[in-house]
Design a protein that fits this description.
Layout: H1 48-51, E1 103-111, H2 116-125, E2 130-134, H3 136-141, H4 143-151, E3 155-158, H5 172-190, E4 196-199, H6 208-216, E5 220-221, E6 226-227, H7 236-246, E7 251-256, H8 263-278, E8 282-283
Parallel strand pairs: 1-2, 1-7, 1-8, 2-3, 3-4, 4-5, 6-7
Helix pairs in contact: 2-8, 4-5, 5-6, 7-8
Length: about 290
Amino acid sequence: MGVVLAASTVPGAPAETGPAAAQGAAAAPTTTAGPTSPGAATASGPSSSTAATLPSTAAGTPPAAGAPAASAPASASGPAALPPAADAPSHSIVYHTAERGRTVALTFDDGPGPATAQVLDLLAQYHAKATFCQIGPQAAADPAIVKRIVADGHRLCDHTVNHPQPMHTLPHDRQVFEIDGAKDMITKAGGPGTKVGWFRAPGGDFSADNRAIAVQSGLRPLGWTVDTRDWCRPGAAAILATAQQELHPGGIILMHDGGGDRSQTVAALSQLLPWLVQQGYTFDFPAS
């Protein structure tokens, strides 16, 4: 995820600080069309191996669980989107579970990747559900794992085509490409009936513009309240301790199943899941 929130991002939203990988994503055209060959290394998107190296980071103080998101100033990067349909999701960034109460939403970013199958195995062991925020080309490169995520009862979130940072500085058409292109790639990978319900901006770099684009595509902006900082590989014990200390009922935990070596995340998750059960938490999805 990896970017420091600029002044145009949503006040009070969690910021992210890790730098993007040196190989970064290739520049995408400023059109709304997705790449010709999803997952291929084209001018409009990196290959899956390139996208897999994108670290996703987060820092800063998130709002209290359930707190309403503040309004973001209009983006200077492009024209305002058309008004959303009457049944469109809210523009506000979601920071709480659907049911609230003593529930928790687990979210995994930057995949699918080599660790995704291990994450799914652990979730199945504890009958836990999660939301996977996926990079478009990564999903296109491994449709089998996307189909497994759907079949196992988990949900999907759009995390852009190229993981651009900072996203809010991109022209409007490029942001449309990043959001709509990734949604199309993820949906195609999942097969008929696959739904993508949320959009998470790389680094939490939300703006009025990219939130409006997401809502036009039927996606609600998705934040988090607990940043485990697993992206920087501080050790499984540190990842676990952060989750335990920062979680409050109705919270959303940010972890990663892609973007690099996630063995520490898997190890921490193997301890976090039984702890959550022991604490009386039930697993939920973010509000939609």
